[in-house]
């Protein structure tokens, strides 16, 4: 009964000698001395209590036990090599993958239309996107980055602000055409969609007119639905310029009046400072920031 296992050096010495039929060639292959190979072989034979090689002229030939051990060891070493290679490849894939949590309206209105550009900018990135209104839980192993609106940077985490966003008024092209020549003062008499976070009084102040909040009309708690309602001609809507940008570029929305006011909450890219994917996350955050920069301005 074997009381202790041979060391990896002993097994490597045996495997190299079995493969080459020579202790000298095995020593050259492993970059050790002939004496080291000889000692390892003797140690293994002593441990097993049997001979593993017999000399045939200048060559060493395996005994029956030696051949059986060499075949088993070769299979075992190949399995270890495959496992190590697989682990290395998996680790490389993990370091190039990011699990991103993002608010639904930002994902649908802005991020998804930008994904082709992201693939071109970071071709090795494997992105997994989960849309959620919940605050990020970075204790989860399946979350690397969150895109979240907030009034200030998230304390305790690394973060990058995408941009200083503005609240603008938008509507469908058909609605704008139906009310061609509208002024800021006219909006008091026009259908206006409502959202709890966006106040028409603030927009009116920016436009230089006094506006009360609409007393009737549809109220939305989801900014994505608000944009869709405006695009379908239901009235004027206040929304973040970033969320409306792709729809305006596609001709689904227009900004009929230039007035705007600064958003109280801006979007941040948030992640844990001890995440091992720091380099990749910072690349992703920088791409997001550049993609979010208003077309008329270039962020430093």
Percent range of helical residues:
40-55%
Report the biggest beta sheet as strand number plus sense, adding barrel if it closes: 5 strands, mixed
Q: Choose one word for the global shape.
A: rod-shaped
Q: Which blocks of ≥5 consecutive residues have pLDDT under 50?
A: none
In short:
With 300 residues, the protein is α/β, with parallel strands linked by helices. The chain has 10 helices and 12 strands.
Describe the protein's architecture and organization.
- This protein has 300 residues and is an alpha/beta fold.
- The protein has three domains: 8-93, Winged helix-like DNA-binding domain superfamily/Winged helix DNA-binding domain (Arc Repressor Mutant, subunit A, Orthogonal Bundle); 96-163 and 265-292, Periplasmic binding protein-like II (D-Maltodextrin-Binding Protein, domain 2); 166-262, D-Maltodextrin-Binding Protein, domain 2, CATH 3.40.190.
- The chain has ten helices and twelve strands.
- It has helices at residues 8-20, 23-30, 34-48, 64-95, 104-121, 173-178, 200-207, 223-231, 241-249, 278-292, and strands spanning 53-56, 59-62, 97-102, 126-131, 145-150, 158-161, 166-170, 194-195, 219-220, 237-240, 260-262, 266-271.
- The strands form four sheets. It has a five-stranded mixed beta sheet.
- Helix 1 crosses helix 3 and helix 1 crosses helix 4 (64-95).
- The longest helix is centred in the first third of the chain and has 32 residues, at 64-95.
